[in-house]
Amino acid sequence: MNNPHSTVHYLVPRAELASDEDLKKLLERGITKSKLPLIRKQDPGLKGLECTVGQVVKFYRRSPVTGKEEEFFRLIVE
Fold it and tell me: At 56, phi and psi to the nearest 5?
């Protein structure tokens, strides 16, 4: 890796801001923002994302059991 600040690493899950559709699906499952796990805005996993406090970020990780990519969500806090 040439960039020492890059988050491209097999142990760092891919991240993006959750869409309105993602949030709607969470609400349909009874999951509100207040029930989501928290992540600090300064977390290295959010590096490169244009995010603000109160937004929801969606991470993707590959399951070691099934090999399928799974989504998980975090609420961004200060």
Answer: -110, 135
Residue 27 sits in a domain whose CATH number is 3.90.940.20
Q: Which whole-number Å values give the CA distances from 47 to 9, 27, 31, 33, in the listed order?
A: 13, 27, 26, 21
3-state helix, strand, coil in the chain (%, to 5): 20, 30, 50
Burial class of residue 36, CB neighbours in 10 A (0-12, 13-18, 19+): middle
* pLDDT digit string, tens, across residues 18-42: 999 999 999 999 999 999 999 999 9
pTM: 0.82
Domain total for the chain? 1
Whether 23 is in a domain gets the answer yes
Please list, in sequence order, all residues whose beta carbon lies within 8 angstroms of the beta carbon of residue 25, skipping any fewer than 6 positions away. Answer: none
